[in-house]
Amino acid sequence: MPSKKTGITKSRKPLFSALIISVIMGTLVLGGCGPNPTDTPPTPTAQANFKVSSVLLSILLTYQTAQGSDEERLKTAIQYARDVRAINSKDEVIFELELDSPSQEKPVTDKIKGMGGIVRNASNLEGTAKLRVTVPVSAFVKYAATNKENFLSDLAAFQGVKAINLLIGGEPLELEQMPQTEAALEQVYQTSQNEGVKLMGADQWQAAGFRGQGVRIGVIDVGYRFYEKFLGKTLPANLEVKDFGEDFGEQPLVQSNIHGTAVTEIIYSLAPEAQIFVTAVDGTDAQYKAAIEYLLEKNVSIISASVGDHLHAGDGTSPIEVYIERIRKEKNVLFLFSAGNEGASHYTQFFSPDADGFHQFAPGVTQLAVGNTSATPVKTYFSLNWEQWGLSKTQVNDLDLFVVDRNGNPVKGGSSQDFQSTRSPIEVVPLTLEAKQLYYIRIRQKPGTPAYTKPFRLHLFGRNVVFQFIVPQMAIARPASSKGAVAVGAINWAEDKWIYYSSQGPLPDGRFKPEISAPTEVSSRAYEEEGRETFGGTSAACPEAAGIAVILKSANPNLSADQLEALLKEATVDLTPAGPDFANGYGRVDLKGLKPAQGIAPQGKAPPAPVVEMASLQFPVLTLQ
Description:
By secondary structure, the chain is an alpha+beta fold. Helices cover about 25% and strands about 25% of the residues. The strands form 8 sheets. Strands 6, 7, 8, 9, 11, 22, 23 and 24 form an 8-stranded mixed β-sheet that branches. Strand 2 and strand 3 form a beta hairpin. The longest helix is centred in the last third of the chain and has 18 residues, at about 540-555. The protein is globular, with a radius of gyration of 24 Å. The relative contact order is 0.15.
């Protein structure tokens, strides 16, 4: 069983199965390191390649080194691109360009067109200009045959191109896939109960006539499969759905997943008279912004999003976080975001290299065990970032991230070796983990780069996996980390306690998160029939809190975003007598202590948020027992 210190409950058995416990503890508690991972891809010869994601470069390397006919080599490259999620359904390599300035958009776009690529979208987010690019995979890998450089080197060397990055969007913040059949979803709607309605006292407010009337709320999610079947039943008859996959000229998103359908159902169960507008996005910053702009046109006063990632510092400074902060101030819109599900898949400590430059997760232990306990492959990504975002490139340490098998051998596609001399302090490895397999993660100071000097903290995240060494704190997802967002943590409704996977604060800059928490693990017979009993994760908690916000707004339409947040903090049950904490925030949202009343307003009773000095603070590392 996991260490009792983790506070892990037994309510989600699929994730903490006996397999991973026995495999990890049977092979590595404080075990050996195995061979060093090989350096793939090799150090690029072209200086321009320093601007390029090493994972993207590996697609070209795969094609160049594959055996067989040209057609066979192309198929090998396509499969590799699929493994690292850098290709779309049209067999186009897809990536993101960051420009030196917005003025470079036209010449760079013309350059890409001349190379055989397409700019699908251009965005300027808080002064950061980015282009979303697709290239037919054949043109991408064969470009070097008729040019001096490969596709990425040639593009990176063009004036105005700052960086070429993997395009990875935010993920729905629930731990396993929900049922993806129409029959299963219909069963959910017929038999499911949102226990949060009664637990939070929303039923009393509904009975008093506060049902969300007059309030317009927006939802940002990844898909709304089968929503048409339930309009006027468990979803509002006038539900408006906007697909930004189609708007960006790519694969439609609305029918790709039912996650957003279930999220919207929760809001509707709490505030059935609110007007709900839903948007489908891929979780990238550009589509986030497009969705927010669309919802602003609909005059929403609340936006709920159960999507997030760990692809930046997580301290509120990324363009999308700054944008959300600004929009809240300018448009008086309250943003609620899922806090994240990385309570059991986050590790943080100060970098501690051994003599070979490999980080020590524990004294003498330079690898962290992670496994896929399910009977099917799991798509995941591992992200490593370290707290040197504000430094000049010459001051930033250059770290590499590796995933190896249980024998220490490199996993195909299992490395990210970007050059921090030109790129941000982050490495990302998209990967598919084979069923019931054990893997190890290793972190290394890149050979030949300036050695570790001043102390700095690193953060390692995974998705749908469990780490051997766990630090639940400092695991808040982005954009919940924005200064303009309310981060919502998860409470197991049946026990009314923080649930192990819910990401805790604080943020790297010491700011208090999450602000509030809400119920999750609401029941569903359909999930039980498919081996899963509940809709969980902070994905479920966020719309629960958003639904309460809608009820309060319907009681007092004049509440500003700041007043509504203050009222949510006051309308809580403190689950820890000590007051606000980094697991539950101000507590679990609850209306039972408030008498339903028109014109309700905050009373200023919420205590100030705790302030943390982060310079030398170290959180204990929990180890699976």
